Structures are given as C-alpha cells and as structure tokens.
Q: What sequence folds into this?
C-alpha cells in the first residue's frame, strides 16, 4: 500500500513538473514572438524613415538643379544658378540666442524645419509649372544618374507645344547624354537646340553652355553629399 502511494506521489510530481515545463515553454514562445514582432517593426520603421529621408534629400537636389535648368530656359548665369541657400539648404542651423531650455530649442528648430519644408514644396511646384512635368521628372532622374529614364522624359518634353517645356526637355536630353559620357550624341542635338533657344547662336556657344551646366550639375550633387559623377 505504501509503495502504491509513493508511486502515485511520484507520478503527480512528474506530471506537475511536466505541466510547469509546458507553461515555461509557452511563456518563452510568447516572449520570442513579441521580440520578433518588435524587431520587424523597428526594421520597417527604420527602412521607412531612411526612404523618407532619401526622398527629402533628392527633392532638395532636384530643386537646386532646377534653378540651373531654369537659367538655361529663361536666362541667367548657369554656372552660379541655384547656389545652396535658404530654400535648398539641407538643414537649419542652431537656433540663435534668446531661447532657454532644450524643449524650447527643439520646438523652434522644428518650426524652422517646417517653414523650410513649406518653402521647398512651393518652389518644387513652381519648377513643375515653369519646366513642365516631363522635364521636371527628367531632371529628377538625371540628378539621380538614371540617364535612360531622363532621356525618355526629356524627349517627351521636347515634343511639347509649350516652348519653355520643349526647350527644358531639349537641354535635359543634351545633359543626360553628356553626363553619361555620350558627348557625340549630345553635340548632335546642337542644331535642334539652336532652332529653339533664342540665346544660343552657334554650336560653340552651345558647347560652352553645356559644359557650364554639366559642371553645375556635378557641383550640386557634391554639395548634397552625392557622387559628383555617375559610375
């Protein structure tokens, strides 16, 4: 009898240990699931933030380069166009004196960033209006070294009935060829350019202007910490 009771107690102990082990196992599994979910969430958030940051950076580069193309289309000094300044600067500097406390400092900086973002958005919309959607998209591709995409948009813009859109498209087409080391194809477009650009009267003048514009494009990339030339 004593032996049976002892065996029964051992069985109960073993069963309790097994149940306890299962409970611990389930707790560990739940914690692992939570950790996995958090890891995925953090990774997704970081990726989204990175893409958003890259998108914002490219927006400012296109805006700065847009000033150069605007100078080509509407007149102006191409070599000095769209210098990095109040609108297209990457970030605002430290908040000047007169503010006490870290929270106030952060609030003021956030307001300055918001104001600058609004200015940049407004300037981008003006560029789209001045150059046309196709030329603007071609310029965006060109700054990002996507030459074939840039050429596609540029050719479409060059066929526009709007003379400013067409001229912007022709210049972007020339720059896309030159930037991708296809200078002969760029130069072959000079006669067409002379026909529509009233400020260009010879192929030598077109060549000089193209070189200045190409140098400005590379300088703009460098100013925004992008590769100066395309690989």
A:
């Amino acid at each position: 009898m004593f032996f049976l009771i002892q065996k029964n107690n051992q069985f109960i102990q073993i069963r309790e240990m097994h149940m306890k082990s299962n409970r611990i196992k389930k707790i560990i599994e739940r914690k692992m699931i939570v950790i996995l979910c958090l890891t995925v969430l953090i990774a997704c958030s970081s990726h989204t933030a990175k893409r958003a940051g890259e998108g914002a950076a490219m927006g400012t580069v296109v805006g700065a380069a847009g000033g150069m193309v605007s100078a080509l289309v509407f007149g102006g000094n191409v070599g000095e166009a769209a210098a990095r300044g109040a609108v297209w600067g990457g970030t605002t500097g430290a908040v000047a004196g007169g503010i006490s406390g870290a929270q106030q400092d952060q609030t003021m900086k956030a307001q300055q960033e918001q104001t600058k973002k609004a200015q940049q958005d407004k300037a981008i919309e003006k560029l789209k209006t001045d150059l046309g959607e196709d030329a603007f998209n071609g310029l965006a591709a060109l700054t990002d070294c996507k030459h074939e995409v840039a050429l596609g948009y540029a050719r479409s813009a060059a066929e526009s009935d709007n003379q400013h859109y067409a001229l912007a498209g022709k210049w972007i087409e020339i720059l896309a060829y030159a930037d991708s080391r296809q200078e002969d194809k760029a130069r072959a477009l000079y006669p067409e350019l002379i026909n529509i650009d009233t400020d260009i009267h010879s192929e030598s003048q077109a060549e000089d202007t193209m070189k200045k514009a190409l140098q400005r494009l590379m300088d703009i990339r460098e100013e925004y910490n992008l590769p100066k030339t395309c690989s």
